[in-house]
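Possible regression after last week's pipeline update?

I re-ran a chain I had predicted before the update to compare outputs. Posting the input and the new output here so someone can diff against the archived version. Not blocking, just want to make sure nothing changed silently.
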Amino acid sequence: MKKLFLMAASICYPIAYSQVGVNTNMPDATLDIKAQNATGSMRSVDGLLIPRVDRERAMNMSPVKASTLIYVDNISTGTATGQASNVDSFGFYYFDENLGKWIKLNGGSSTSATQQPFTAMTNLSSGTFNMSANNNQQGVTLFEFNISNGNLMMPPANAYKDRTISIRNSADAAFGFTFQEAYVTNQIAVSLLTTRSIMFHSDGTRWYQTAGF
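New output (post-update):
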């Protein structure tokens, strides 16, 4: 009889305590964390410390469930590819299971004291826009092309959400653009004249022309 009672108690325990409280005996949610010192001049730290990982770790976690939250504190490891294709700066990221990748929360910084960003890449001769050439560092904003095949293949917009870039034509003739997404008429420039520049922004679905000069 005693064993039966203990078994029943063990089954009911998670039901009776389905809400967990930290620093409180009466939680108001599934997990309710109260500050130990909500006011005053105490020096002890209150807060929630999210797991800190490098980019290589973010690349290789599997399987990752939706809404998983991490803080990336090192982007010198791994590459911004696959599920880590958006991991190009320090900061908080949550996992989108439908997209199969980490999504950046606002507020991440792009560099550390030991890592200085690029500001431009010049004299690029390939007709394919290769983001991996700059290791996807967010500091690179201007790409100067001197191509001879008359056409520049842009990367897929969904892999570079929230990136804004400028492209300059340093060749002696105009070159056109080829995109992997569909565009309506007059939505985007068909070509770039010599010595001119154009700015694009990706919203994760397609590239948009935001300026030309």
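Follow-up from reviewer: compared with the archived run. The domain at 120-212 is CATH 2.60.120 (Jelly Rolls). Marking as no regression found.
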